[in-house]
Amino acid sequence: MKKLLSLLIASTLIIGSLTACSGGQDKPSTGNGDAKEVKIGINYELTGDVASYGNASVDGILMAFDEINAAGGINGMQIVPVKIDNKSDSAEATSVATRLMTQEGVVASLGPATSGNFMATIPVAMGSKIPVISASATADKGVTTDDKGNVNDFVFRLCFNDSFQGVTMANFASGNLSAKKAVIIKDNSSDYGKGLAENFRATFEAAGGTIVAEEGYVGKDKDFNAILTKIKGQEFDVIFIPGYYQEAGLIIKQARDLGIKAPVLGADGFDSPVLLELAGPEALNDVYFSNHYSSLDQDPKVQDFIAAYKAKNNVDPNAFNALGYDLGQYIADAIKRANSTDPVAIKDALADTKGFAGVTGTFDMGEDHNPIKSAVVIGLENGVQKTSVKVDPK
Q1: What's the CA gap between 313 and 295, in Å, rounded?
Q2: Topology of domain 162-291, per CATH?
């Protein structure tokens, strides 16, 4: 009997020791209680091909968190950002999401910036039942809804989608520039480029326009002279380039060097200071792109943000800075309204958002977890933003 009792005590001590030492995975709490902090994941492209987007977004997010923490936090809790670089790689983005949601104890995860990288995190979010939100994943399909059109409960975005951008730029081409003939030069290696091209073509043709040529390239291409020489002999009024700044900057420069002076249209992928570095100021005239925000907007909320960002970073903010800032404010607002650190309660608050007033516009969150908000079309002169036209959703 004594031997049995000794064995029982020893077993209990061993189990207790193992439990104490396991430490392991932090789990998000299910209520505020006496919590002094709340962890929010940041899964962004800090290095790699689209690091310009990722770093700009994170700068905005952290600025929002700093302001919120300085004002007392969320319901008395300080925000603790858990920032991890996904290296502009979708497989790495999945790995980062898994770590944030199963080991770091975050109640929500922000990012990645690009559609492909963000979509790679969705299965992890749905399985973990922890919200993920992107401010810039614009792909039409596979983001907030699945292939069958069902809403992904734990997935949200703050930006309009590619359909809206493609339609917006086609309407701008035909309505504002009186264009009748267009050329499309698209990024065939990305869903972003293909989706924009598809919607531009459909809308432009429906308005009576003609696509006289549609050419493609692959991301990381450097020499576009063959494509540009091919289209140079044709008659067209505008060129639409649905792609990212790395290639768009080179295409615009090489087009202008060949004497192609037609207006160039694009989407939010143009919004990076690297576009100016690659194309040069002289090439960036008669260039227009859809975007989520314009520094020309005289709304006091926008101008206050610009002043604060510039004071903090000694540079003017771009749209990704503004989207990141709104994203930081949006998740904090949802946690505050949920009055809980339970990810399911936070998800419900995100879905119930009405009249959120951000730097990139005021929006209600739609039933499909896409915001109902306006876009702007920005015009460049010598690489500097000079005009801005607001376009409302139809």
Answers
A1: 16
A2: Rossmann fold (3.40.50)
Largest CA-CA distance found in the chain, in angstroms, rounded = 99
Name, in order, each residue with C-beta under 8 angstroms of 14's C-beta and a sequence gap of 6 or more. Answer: none
Which CATH code is given to the segment(s) 37-160+299-373? Answer: 3.40.50.2300
The one-letter amino acid at 317: P
Mean pLDDT, each 10-residue run in order, the chain (394 residues): 41 38 44 81 96 96 98 98 98 98 98 96 98 94 93 96 92 96 95 92 97 96 97 97 96 98 96 95 98 91 96 94 97 98 98 97 95 94 94 74
Beta sheet of 210-217, edge-to-edge order: 210-217, 181-187, 238-240, 264-266, 287-291, 375-381, 384-391
**Residue 131 neighbours by CB distance under 10 Å:** 27
Name the amino acid, one letter, at 329.
Q
Does the predicted TM-score (pTM) go above 0.70? yes
Strands 155-157, 37-44: pairing kind: unpaired
Are 211 and 240 within 8 A, CB to CB? Answer: no
Structure-token match 């949006």, residue found: 330
Structure tokens at 48: 């790699």
* First and final C-alpha spacing in the chain: 81
* Residue 295 burial (C-beta neighbours within 10 Å; 0-12, 13-18, 19+): middle
